[in-house]
Amino acid sequence: MGLVVEDVHWADSETLDCLTFLSRAGRPGAARVVVTCRNDGAPLDAHVTDWLAPMRGAAEAEEITLGPLSRAAVPEPDRERAAIEVVLDRKDRRESANRQGHPPH
User: Fold this and answer.
1) Phi, psi angle pair for 72, to nearest 5°
2) Which of 1, 37, 46, 82 is a Cys-bridge partner for 31, taking CB atoms 3.0 to 4.6 Å apart?
3) Residue 39: CB partners within 8 Å, gap ≥ 6?
4) In a structure prediction context, what are the per-residue pLDDT tens digits for the chain, which is 105 residues long?
5) Do 34 and 2 contact (CB within 8 A), yes or no?
6) Closest among 35, 25, 16 to 60, alpha carbons compared
7) Cα–Cα dist 98/88, whole Å
8) How many CB atoms lie within 10 A of CB 21?
9) What are the DSSP calls for the chain, one per residue?
10) pTM to 2 decimal places
11) What residues does each domain of the chain span?
12) Would strands 32-35 and 2-5 be described as parallel, antiparallel, or unpaired?
C-alpha cells in the first residue's frame, strides 16, 4: 500500500502521528508514505520540523529536493490562466478601492 500526502507543512500533530504509524518500517503491512513539504524558506511549525527530523534520518527515507519550475516547464494554458487570474485579482482590488469597501448599490 502507498499513500501520498501533499503539503505536509500544513499537517497537524495528529496527522503526523498517523503518518508515523502507517510508515513504521519493519512492521508487517507498513505503507510507503510519500510527502511533499514546502522548502521556500518560509518557517515551518515546530511540530512539523520535529516530525521531519527523524524521518529525514531514517535509513529507509529518501529526500528529493526540487527547484521551482521554469517558465518553459509550465504548459501554455496554465500560464494564460495564471495571467488571467492576476488581471482579475487586480481588477477586483481596483473595484474594491473604488467602492472604498462599500458594496455596490
Assistant:
1) -70, -25
2) 1
3) 65, 66
4) 788 888 899 999 999 999 888 887 556 667 788 898 887 778 889 999 999 988 888 877 888 888 777 777 766 665 556 655 555 555 555 655 555 555 544
5) yes
6) 25
7) 15
8) 11
9) -EEEES-GGG--HHHHHHHHHHH-TTSTTPPEEEE----SSPPPPHHHHHHHHHHHHSTT-------PPPGGGS-HHHHHHHHHHHHHHHHHHHHHHHHTTPPP-
10) 0.58
11) 1-68, 70-105
12) parallel
CA dihedral of 87, 90, 92, 95, whole degrees rounded to 10: -120
Q: Which grid cell is 94?
A: 481596483
Cell 518500517 sits on residue? 25
What amino acid is encoded at 69 in this protein?
Answer: L
CA distance 64 to 15: 22
CA-to-CA distance for 105 and 101, rounded, in angstroms? 12
Residue with cell 520535529: 50
